[in-house]
Amino acid sequence: MAPKVFAQENFVTDIKVPGMVHGRMIRPSVAGTVPVKVDESSIKDIPGAKVVWDKGFLGVVADKEWDAIQAAQKLKVDWSSAEAPFPEQAALYDHIRKADVRKRNVEKENGNVDDAFKTAAKVIEAEYEWPFQSHASMGPACALVEIKDGQLTCWSGTQKSHFVQEGLALTLDLPLDKVHVIHVTSPGSYGRNDADDCAMDAAVLAKAVGKPVRLQYMREQGTGWDPKGPASIHKARAAIDAQGKVVGYEFTSKGFSRVDVNTNGGKPHDTLAGQTLGVALKSGDGFGVPAESYAFDNKRLAWETIPPLLDRSSPLRSAHLRDPVGPQIHFASESFIDEVAAAVNADPIEFRLRHIKEPRDVAVIKAAADAAKWETRTSPRRDQSGNKVSGRGIAYAQRNGTRVAIVAEVDIDRSTGKIFARKFTVAHDCGQIINPDGLVKCIEGNIVQGVSRTLWEEVTFDRKTVTSVDWLTYPILDITETPAEVNVVLINHPELPPTGAGEPSIRPVAAAIANAIFDATGVRIRRVPFSPDRVKSALS
Q: What is the DSSP string of 192-233?
């Protein structure tokens, strides 16, 4: 860490090679349009400026970086005409509800769910909504590509150098052993941010101009054009018999695919360069279901994907974002478990333990409850009045063998709608623990990012393109809003293999906060993010 702290280590933006030029990409203001006329004379006064235009691919290079920026801004381009491809943002969730299902997958089913609902004394139903979200990395992507003596060398901040190697070879039709990708520290990524696209774009520019090209995206391109975490809706229902027992449970997620473009840049059809150059498209289908061990006699878990809003070169391409689709699924499923607990007048933890059957799941929930000094009672609280209220909420999930339970404690100002996610107690079981200090820090990072995505993060767009392109239009959690406490209980199983900690603890964060808001206010908010305006509106 010391070289980073003291600026002694190169970041990807610092890499230089002799003879390199600087590149910038030019994206359309209306998604889906392509350049039909490019007036290169509009940048003839900029030293060394050159245009690279091939089908929908359009970029510029210049000897100096500022000149490349100026060239990108001054270049006169006529774009094809096209209808605005996106719905109004206010209609996003209605679009998802009405959209044709491209693929449906029932991942888990036992008993006879339909019969259970037909004979139920009471049916509880709810629907939850989750927006598109951006990686919003600290800085936009940068890559440098040099093609020399038949060998391509790429310096990139990608988290998957081997897939970028494959993608570069396919994009430029080179043998794989002639492509060398060097990872250099970058603004970071969990999932598929803009790094892989940048590497492919840089390679196309470098081949076209015959010089090494250092390409850096602009801020609005990094946030506006990175692949997005998919927007989705989640429908849940529970059948309750006359004695208050849950006799049927159904949960279905419907949304844009988490692999509209895949999790890596290994195939040209998954990158902006490939799509703008006209390669055949291949949008994948994938979502997921809750990972838990609730044992209901009749239970069905399913997911459905819908077609992308735009099939090519879209700023709303959906792909992997930290814990792919885990936060949105479990925001819905664990919020709904709380709703059912409230409906049958049960303490949220007691209700979970009544139905969970896997011993490690039971243990992790009890560990979180004990550490948080959980007081057994129903939600919501009945002992608060005035504008300043507090509440606690529980949520739990599995991920690839790891179990996490989180108790969130929040303070809410009803007059402003502002939420302070003050304290988190996290019980974490990932099998054998190898590096406990590193594990705790990883969990803390998950909590902070999870709070940010829950309270603030939402991609905004109009009919033409994405409009959340910087820190003002795509706000994230700031340092004054970070939790005052994150207390971690580690459950070690040296007899079991380690099952990972990079992403499981972000999975239950949103639901724990949502359940705490309900406990504090008696109001159930079913759409993320819980921004002050949305919370204030819900409370009023």
A: --SHHHHHHHHHHHHHHHTS-EEEE--HHHHHHHS-BBPPEE
CA angle, 454 then 450 then 379, to 5°: 60
Query: How would residue 419 be classed by pLDDT, with cut points 50, 70 and 90?
Result: very high
Residue 190's pLDDT is: 84
Residue 42: count other Cβ atoms within 10 Å of its Cβ: 15
Segment 82-106 shows an average pLDDT of 97
Q: What is the pLDDT of residue 2?
A: 81
pLDDT tens by residue, 420-457? 999 999 999 999 999 999 999 999 999 999 999 999 99
Q: Which fold has domain 2-30+34-81+141-217?
A: Aldehyde Oxidoreductase; domain 4 (3.30.365)
Q: Where are the domains of the chain?
A: 2-30+34-81+141-217, 89-134+228-306, 345-539
Whole-angstrom distance, CA of residue 127 vs CA of residue 121: 21
Fold type of domain 345-539: Aldehyde Oxidoreductase; domain 4 (3.30.365)
Burial readout 100-138 (b: 16 or more C-beta within 10 A, e: otherwise) = eeeeeeeeeeeeebeebbeebeeebebbbbbbbbbbbbe
Helix/strand/coil (H/E/C) assignment for every residue in 349-379: HHHHHHHECCHHHHHHHHHHHHHCCCCCCCC
Is residue 526 a contact partner of residue 335, using CB atoms and an 8 Å limit? yes
Burial of 485: CB neighbours in 10 Å, binned 0-12, 13-18, 19+: exposed
Same CATH topology for 2-30+34-81+141-217 and 89-134+228-306?
A: yes
CA–CA dist 59, 72 (Å, integer): 7
Q: Where are the alpha helices (DSSP H) in 281-358?
A: 326-343, 348-355
> From CA 33, how far away is CA 527, in angstroms rounded?
32
Residue 489, Cβ density class (10 Å: 0-12 exposed, 13-18 middle, ≥19 buried): middle
> Does the predicted TM-score (pTM) go above 0.85?
yes
**Residue 5 has what pLDDT?**
79
- The pair of structure tokens assigned to 253 is 């997620």
Pairing type for strands 21-25 and 213-216 reads parallel
Decide yes or no: CATH 4.10.80 for domain 89-134+228-306: no
CA distances from 398 to 119, 290, 326, 327 (A): 31, 8, 10, 12
**Residue 264: per-residue pLDDT:** 84
- The pLDDT score that the predictor gives to residue 371 is 98
Q: Which tens digits make up the pLDDT trace of 21-51?
A: 999 999 999 999 999 999 999 999 999 999 9
